[in-house]
Design goal:
two-stranded antiparallel sheet, globular
Protein backbone atom coordinates (compact mmCIF):
# COMPACT_ATOMS: atom_id res chain seq x y z
CA UNK A 1 0.00 0.00 0.00
CA UNK A 2 1.38 3.38 -0.98
CA UNK A 3 1.70 5.78 1.91
CA UNK A 4 1.02 9.49 1.50
CA UNK A 5 1.69 12.10 4.14
CA UNK A 6 3.20 9.68 6.66
CA UNK A 7 6.63 9.30 8.19
CA UNK A 8 9.02 7.15 6.18
CA UNK A 9 12.51 6.75 7.61
CA UNK A 10 11.94 9.89 9.66
CA UNK A 11 10.99 12.16 6.73
CA UNK A 12 7.48 13.53 6.27
CA UNK A 13 6.28 13.03 2.73
CA UNK A 14 4.64 16.02 1.07
CA UNK A 15 0.96 16.56 1.82
CA UNK A 16 -1.43 19.26 0.68
CA UNK A 17 -2.65 19.99 4.21
CA UNK A 18 -1.06 19.55 7.63
CA UNK A 19 -4.29 18.91 9.48
CA UNK A 20 -6.43 15.94 10.49
CA UNK A 21 -9.70 17.65 11.37
CA UNK A 22 -12.78 15.53 10.75
CA UNK A 23 -14.45 16.40 7.48
CA UNK A 24 -11.59 18.35 5.96
CA UNK A 25 -8.48 16.17 6.11
CA UNK A 26 -6.79 15.86 2.71
CA UNK A 27 -4.98 12.70 3.78
CA UNK A 28 -8.27 10.95 4.50
CA UNK A 29 -9.87 12.14 1.26
CA UNK A 30 -6.98 10.75 -0.76
CA UNK A 31 -7.12 7.41 1.07
CA UNK A 32 -10.84 7.15 0.40
CA UNK A 33 -10.35 8.02 -3.26
CA UNK A 34 -7.86 5.18 -3.55
CA UNK A 35 -10.29 2.81 -1.82
CA UNK A 36 -8.02 2.35 1.21
CA UNK A 37 -10.01 1.58 4.34
CA UNK A 38 -7.26 0.32 6.64
CA UNK A 39 -4.48 2.89 6.78
CA UNK A 40 -1.60 4.09 8.91
CA UNK A 41 -1.79 6.95 11.37
CA UNK A 42 0.11 9.88 9.80
CA UNK A 43 1.01 11.38 13.14
CA UNK A 44 3.01 14.25 11.69
CA UNK A 45 -0.13 15.68 10.10
CA UNK A 46 -1.82 16.56 13.38
CA UNK A 47 -1.88 20.34 13.66
CA UNK A 48 -1.45 22.26 16.89
CA UNK A 49 -5.20 22.99 16.70
CA UNK A 50 -5.85 19.23 16.62
CA UNK A 51 -3.65 18.74 19.69
CA UNK A 52 -5.39 21.60 21.46
CA UNK A 53 -8.78 19.99 20.79
CA UNK A 54 -7.55 16.77 22.40
CA UNK A 55 -6.32 18.70 25.45
CA UNK A 56 -9.60 20.57 25.85
CA UNK A 57 -11.67 17.40 25.55
CA UNK A 58 -9.51 15.49 27.99
CA UNK A 59 -9.63 18.25 30.59
CA UNK A 60 -13.40 18.61 30.23
CA UNK A 61 -13.89 14.90 30.91
CA UNK A 62 -11.19 13.85 33.38
CA UNK A 63 -13.17 14.98 36.43
CA UNK A 64 -16.41 13.50 35.11
CA UNK A 65 -14.68 10.15 34.57
CA UNK A 66 -13.63 10.11 38.21
CA UNK A 67 -17.20 10.83 39.23
CA UNK A 68 -19.22 8.73 36.78
CA UNK A 69 -17.07 6.13 34.94
CA UNK A 70 -16.86 2.46 35.76
CA UNK A 71 -13.72 1.67 37.81
CA UNK A 72 -12.45 -0.64 35.06
CA UNK A 73 -12.56 2.27 32.62
CA UNK A 74 -10.44 4.34 35.00
CA UNK A 75 -8.01 1.44 35.30
CA UNK A 76 -7.86 1.30 31.50
CA UNK A 77 -6.99 4.99 31.20
CA UNK A 78 -4.08 4.39 33.56
CA UNK A 79 -2.94 1.18 31.87
CA UNK A 80 -2.92 2.82 28.44
CA UNK A 81 -0.95 5.78 29.81
CA UNK A 82 -3.24 8.18 27.96
CA UNK A 83 -1.56 11.55 27.67
CA UNK A 84 -3.90 14.44 28.54
CA UNK A 85 -1.80 16.81 26.41
CA UNK A 86 -1.10 14.88 23.19
CA UNK A 87 -3.08 12.73 20.79
CA UNK A 88 -1.89 9.15 21.29
CA UNK A 89 0.01 7.18 18.71
CA UNK A 90 -1.85 3.97 17.94
CA UNK A 91 1.42 2.04 18.08
CA UNK A 92 1.90 3.15 21.69
CA UNK A 93 -1.70 2.29 22.57
CA UNK A 94 -1.30 -1.19 21.11
CA UNK A 95 1.95 -1.80 22.95
CA UNK A 96 0.02 -1.48 26.23
CA UNK A 97 -3.30 -2.93 25.03
CA UNK A 98 -2.42 -6.19 23.27
CA UNK A 99 -0.77 -7.92 26.28
CA UNK A 100 -3.85 -7.14 28.41
CA UNK A 101 -6.70 -8.42 26.22
CA UNK A 102 -5.33 -9.30 22.79
CA UNK A 103 -7.12 -6.30 21.26
CA UNK A 104 -5.45 -3.72 19.06
CA UNK A 105 -6.57 -0.40 17.60
CA UNK A 106 -6.44 -0.36 13.80
CA UNK A 107 -6.58 2.94 11.90
CA UNK A 108 -9.32 3.40 9.29
CA UNK A 109 -10.04 6.12 6.76
CA UNK A 110 -13.75 6.41 7.47
CA UNK A 111 -16.96 4.45 7.75
CA UNK A 112 -16.56 0.69 8.12
CA UNK A 113 -19.47 -1.38 6.71
CA UNK A 114 -21.39 -3.11 9.47
CA UNK A 115 -20.31 -6.72 8.95
CA UNK A 116 -16.66 -5.79 8.51
CA UNK A 117 -16.76 -3.69 11.68
CA UNK A 118 -18.29 -6.50 13.74
CA UNK A 119 -15.93 -9.06 12.23
CA UNK A 120 -12.98 -6.89 13.27
CA UNK A 121 -14.25 -7.16 16.84
CA UNK A 122 -14.42 -10.93 16.48
CA UNK A 123 -10.74 -10.86 15.50
CA UNK A 124 -9.89 -8.50 18.40
CA UNK A 125 -9.29 -5.49 16.20
CA UNK A 126 -10.98 -2.16 16.85
CA UNK A 127 -11.44 0.09 13.77
CA UNK A 128 -10.17 3.46 14.94
CA UNK A 129 -10.83 6.85 13.39
CA UNK A 130 -7.69 9.01 13.28
CA UNK A 131 -9.21 12.44 12.62
CA UNK A 132 -10.11 14.92 15.39
CA UNK A 133 -13.38 16.79 15.70
CA UNK A 134 -13.46 20.52 14.99
CA UNK A 135 -12.53 22.57 18.04
CA UNK A 136 -15.74 24.58 17.62
CA UNK A 137 -17.87 21.45 18.14
CA UNK A 138 -16.30 19.82 21.15
CA UNK A 139 -19.29 18.08 22.68
CA UNK A 140 -21.12 16.74 19.65
CA UNK A 141 -20.05 14.98 16.50
CA UNK A 142 -22.39 12.82 14.40
CA UNK A 143 -19.53 10.50 13.52
CA UNK A 144 -16.62 9.05 15.54
CA UNK A 145 -13.29 10.79 15.94
CA UNK A 146 -10.06 9.71 17.60
CA UNK A 147 -11.12 11.06 20.99
CA UNK A 148 -14.35 9.07 20.92
CA UNK A 149 -12.51 5.94 19.81
CA UNK A 150 -9.32 6.07 21.88
CA UNK A 151 -10.52 7.88 25.01
CA UNK A 152 -14.11 6.62 24.92
CA UNK A 153 -13.84 3.02 23.73
CA UNK A 154 -10.33 1.68 24.13
CA UNK A 155 -9.81 1.99 27.92
CA UNK A 156 -12.58 -0.60 28.36
CA UNK A 157 -10.77 -2.88 25.90
CA UNK A 158 -8.00 -3.35 28.46
CA UNK A 159 -10.41 -5.43 30.54
CA UNK A 160 -10.43 -9.10 29.44
CA UNK A 161 -14.09 -9.63 30.42
CA UNK A 162 -15.27 -6.64 28.39
CA UNK A 163 -13.01 -7.60 25.49
CA UNK A 164 -14.60 -11.04 25.44
CA UNK A 165 -18.03 -9.39 25.18
CA UNK A 166 -16.88 -7.57 22.04
CA UNK A 167 -15.63 -10.84 20.55
CA UNK A 168 -18.96 -12.50 21.29
CA UNK A 169 -20.73 -9.60 19.63
CA UNK A 170 -18.65 -10.23 16.53
CA UNK A 171 -19.69 -13.88 16.68
CA UNK A 172 -23.33 -12.81 16.86
CA UNK A 173 -22.88 -10.76 13.70
CA UNK A 174 -21.38 -13.79 11.96
CA UNK A 175 -24.45 -15.81 12.96
CA UNK A 176 -26.61 -13.14 11.32
CA UNK A 177 -24.44 -13.28 8.19
CA UNK A 178 -24.85 -17.06 7.93
CA UNK A 179 -28.62 -16.63 7.95
CA UNK A 180 -28.33 -13.95 5.25
CA UNK A 181 -27.31 -16.52 2.67
CA UNK A 182 -30.88 -17.07 1.50
CA UNK A 183 -30.92 -13.53 0.12
CA UNK A 184 -33.89 -12.27 2.17
CA UNK A 185 -32.93 -8.58 2.46
CA UNK A 186 -35.82 -7.80 4.79
CA UNK A 187 -34.62 -10.38 7.30
CA UNK A 188 -31.04 -9.14 7.04
CA UNK A 189 -32.17 -5.55 7.59
CA UNK A 190 -34.10 -6.62 10.69
CA UNK A 191 -31.06 -8.44 12.10
CA UNK A 192 -28.88 -5.41 11.40
CA UNK A 193 -31.27 -3.13 13.28
CA UNK A 194 -31.21 -5.53 16.23
CA UNK A 195 -27.41 -5.64 16.26
CA UNK A 196 -27.10 -1.87 15.94
CA UNK A 197 -29.60 -1.21 18.72
CA UNK A 198 -27.92 -3.68 21.06
CA UNK A 199 -24.53 -2.09 20.37
CA UNK A 200 -25.94 1.40 20.88
CA UNK A 201 -27.60 0.68 24.22
CA UNK A 202 -24.62 -1.26 25.61
CA UNK A 203 -21.20 -0.56 24.08
CA UNK A 204 -22.02 3.04 23.18
CA UNK A 205 -24.53 4.19 25.81
CA UNK A 206 -24.57 1.50 28.46
CA UNK A 207 -25.01 2.03 32.19
CA UNK A 208 -23.97 -0.52 34.82
CA UNK A 209 -24.51 -0.96 38.52
CA UNK A 210 -21.41 0.00 40.48
CA UNK A 211 -19.37 -2.96 41.74
CA UNK A 212 -19.98 -1.85 45.33
CA UNK A 213 -23.74 -1.71 44.66
CA UNK A 214 -23.92 2.03 45.36
CA UNK A 215 -25.63 3.57 42.34
CA UNK A 216 -24.86 3.49 38.63
CA UNK A 217 -21.85 4.26 36.46
CA UNK A 218 -21.10 4.60 32.76
CA UNK A 219 -19.24 2.06 30.63
CA UNK A 220 -20.52 3.10 27.18
CA UNK A 221 -18.15 5.08 24.99
CA UNK A 222 -20.76 7.57 23.79
CA UNK A 223 -21.21 8.62 27.40
CA UNK A 224 -17.53 8.51 28.31
CA UNK A 225 -16.44 10.71 25.39
CA UNK A 226 -19.02 13.48 25.88
CA UNK A 227 -18.84 15.89 28.78
CA UNK A 228 -22.49 16.83 28.30
CA UNK A 229 -23.86 13.33 27.80
CA UNK A 230 -22.20 11.61 30.76
CA UNK A 231 -23.59 13.97 33.37
CA UNK A 232 -27.00 14.03 31.71
CA UNK A 233 -27.14 10.23 31.63
CA UNK A 234 -26.49 9.78 35.33
CA UNK A 235 -27.97 12.90 36.89
CA UNK A 236 -30.81 14.27 34.77
CA UNK A 237 -34.41 13.59 35.85
CA UNK A 238 -35.27 13.57 32.13
CA UNK A 239 -33.52 10.23 31.57
CA UNK A 240 -35.37 6.95 31.98
CA UNK A 241 -32.94 4.33 33.32
CA UNK A 242 -34.36 0.83 33.16
CA UNK A 243 -33.03 -2.68 33.76
CA UNK A 244 -31.73 -4.27 30.57
CA UNK A 245 -34.41 -6.19 28.67
CA UNK A 246 -33.26 -7.73 25.39
CA UNK A 247 -36.68 -7.80 23.75
CA UNK A 248 -37.09 -4.09 24.50
CA UNK A 249 -33.55 -3.13 23.44
CA UNK A 250 -33.68 -4.76 19.98
CA UNK A 251 -37.01 -3.07 19.23
CA UNK A 252 -36.09 0.37 20.58
CA UNK A 253 -35.16 3.05 18.04
CA UNK A 254 -32.75 5.86 18.91
CA UNK A 255 -31.55 9.22 17.64
CA UNK A 256 -27.89 10.13 17.38
CA UNK A 257 -28.23 13.90 17.43
CA UNK A 258 -29.84 14.54 20.82
CA UNK A 259 -29.20 13.76 24.47
CA UNK A 260 -30.40 10.24 25.17
CA UNK A 261 -33.74 10.04 27.04
CA UNK A 262 -33.68 6.26 27.61
CA UNK A 263 -30.79 4.13 28.85
CA UNK A 264 -30.51 0.49 29.90
CA UNK A 265 -28.72 -0.80 33.00
CA UNK A 266 -26.86 -4.12 33.27
CA UNK A 267 -25.81 -5.62 36.58
CA UNK A 268 -22.21 -6.33 35.58
CA UNK A 269 -19.96 -7.71 32.87
CA UNK A 270 -21.18 -11.27 33.42
CA UNK A 271 -24.72 -10.05 32.85
CA UNK A 272 -23.65 -8.20 29.69
CA UNK A 273 -21.96 -11.32 28.31
CA UNK A 274 -25.05 -13.43 28.98
CA UNK A 275 -27.15 -10.95 27.04
CA UNK A 276 -24.75 -11.03 24.08
CA UNK A 277 -24.94 -14.83 24.05
CA UNK A 278 -28.72 -14.61 24.16
CA UNK A 279 -28.65 -12.12 21.27
CA UNK A 280 -26.63 -14.62 19.23
CA UNK A 281 -29.11 -17.42 20.02
CA UNK A 282 -32.06 -15.25 19.05
CA UNK A 283 -30.38 -14.37 15.75
CA UNK A 284 -29.74 -18.04 15.01
CA UNK A 285 -33.30 -19.02 15.94
CA UNK A 286 -34.87 -16.35 13.74
CA UNK A 287 -36.34 -14.44 16.69
CA UNK A 288 -34.94 -11.16 15.35
CA UNK A 289 -36.26 -11.48 11.80
CA UNK A 290 -39.03 -8.94 12.41
CA UNK A 291 -37.94 -6.29 14.88
CA UNK A 292 -39.76 -2.96 15.08
CA UNK A 293 -39.15 -0.50 12.23
CA UNK A 294 -37.50 2.86 12.78
CA UNK A 295 -34.00 4.10 13.46
CA UNK A 296 -31.29 3.29 12.82
CA UNK A 297 -31.56 3.35 9.07
CA UNK A 298 -29.75 0.51 7.30
CA UNK A 299 -27.66 1.52 4.32
CA UNK A 300 -27.29 -0.48 1.13
CA UNK A 301 -23.58 -0.76 1.88
CA UNK A 302 -24.31 -2.32 5.28
CA UNK A 303 -26.79 -4.76 3.74
CA UNK A 304 -24.25 -5.82 1.10
CA UNK A 305 -21.61 -6.39 3.76
CA UNK A 306 -23.74 -9.14 5.30
CA UNK A 307 -24.23 -10.95 2.00
CA UNK A 308 -21.61 -13.67 1.42
CA UNK A 309 -21.62 -13.10 -2.33
CA UNK A 310 -20.65 -9.45 -1.71
CA UNK A 311 -17.64 -10.20 0.48
Amino acid sequence: MQRVGVFDQGVLEPATGRDLTTGRADFIERAQTRGELFIEQPYGLYSEANQQTWRRLYRALAGKWEQHAHPRFLDGVTRLALDPDRIPRLADINRFLEPLSGFRARAVSGYVPAYLFFDCLRRREFPTTITVRDGDRLDYLPEPDIFHDLAGHVPMHTDPAFADVLVRFGEAARTAAVRARDGDCRRVESALKALARFFWFTIEFGLMRRPDGDGLCAYGSGLLSSAGEIGHALESPRVQRVPFQLDWVVNQSFEIDSLQPLLFVVDGFDHLEREVLRLERWLGDGRLDNVAPGEPAVSREDLRSFRPDAR
